[in-house]
Amino acid sequence: DSRHLESTDALRFKESKGPNGVVAAGQQVLQLFLCECAAPFTAPPVLRISYTAGAAARGMMLKVPLVMSRFAMPEQVGGEDFKNAFRAGGFADKKAIFEPAASMGLEQIGAFIQNGLNLMILTDVDPNPQSFACAGFVAPGQQHITMYVRLQFNAAKNLYRLVVRAANEAVVDSVLDFAATQLAKNGEWEFA
Hints:
The chain is an alpha+beta fold. Helices cover about 20% and strands about 35% of the residues. The chain contains 3 helices and 12 strands; from the N terminus they run ββββββαβαββββαβ. The chain has helices at about 80-85, 105-115, 170-185; strands at about 1-5, 10-15, 35, 45-55, 55-65, 75, 90-100, 120, 130-140, 145-155, 160-165, 190. A hairpin with a 2-residue loop joins β4 (about 45-55) and β5. The radius of gyration is 20 Å and the shape is elongated.
């Protein structure tokens, strides 16, 4: 029996010693994995599990719900610096439009931004109280990649417009997909 998370160029894993021998029916065991982000990534890692049930060898592969924003740190950015980042060149950016999930009020969206995306909400950027300007960074390997995120609400259409900007396209793709899927009604969104 084995469990294995394969390291890639972007993610490096170290396993703690796992359970030895037989795991009885209904028994739970704990296997710890430490993960280091060495480069931006968009695809989640896959956990391979192999085991024997009776005399038959079995296996399964599970996608681990690990996203780029898990490695983000909030970053305080002044209002003018934030606005300048949206005017400056040299950044990859993508936009999504979606109807908000019914369970996502302003308080829940703010909590998701801070705890799910690990970004800092910048209170001095957008005067609309239903919109968010946020910043954070990831530091894979020796890089420092700042992310700028803007979530703007159009009350007349009941739609959010999400814009993610960063110097690395993989960071933009990962953060945009994760944020839009979590915040959108039924996880459905489209590129703007």
